[in-house]
Amino acid sequence: MEEYRAYVIGPDGHIINRVDIRCSNEKEARRLAKIAVDGHAVELWQTDRFIERFEPEQTHKTGAVDPQANSTGAPPRPYPASSR
Predict the structure, then answer these.
(1) Structural domain boundaries of the chain?
(2) Model pLDDT for residues 14-40, shown as the tens digit of each residue
(3) How far apart are CA 46 and CA 62, in angstroms?
């Protein structure tokens, strides 16, 4: 078993919680860290090695998920043209 830490990041950029993760591999650690994203960003680390930062979904004031938002920071991909 490998050990990882998921740090929950508050709106001010400071750590507000830590979740210790023990699992068999990095892929599983990423999956588990994504679960910890609940309105806050989460950074996954293994000792001093940064693995990935998971951002919460952006929502509109109505509470609907913004379809243009993504966690990679890349611009949204356009939908393919309809063949109709």
Answers:
(1) 2-54
(2) 999 999 999 999 999 999 999 989 899
(3) 37
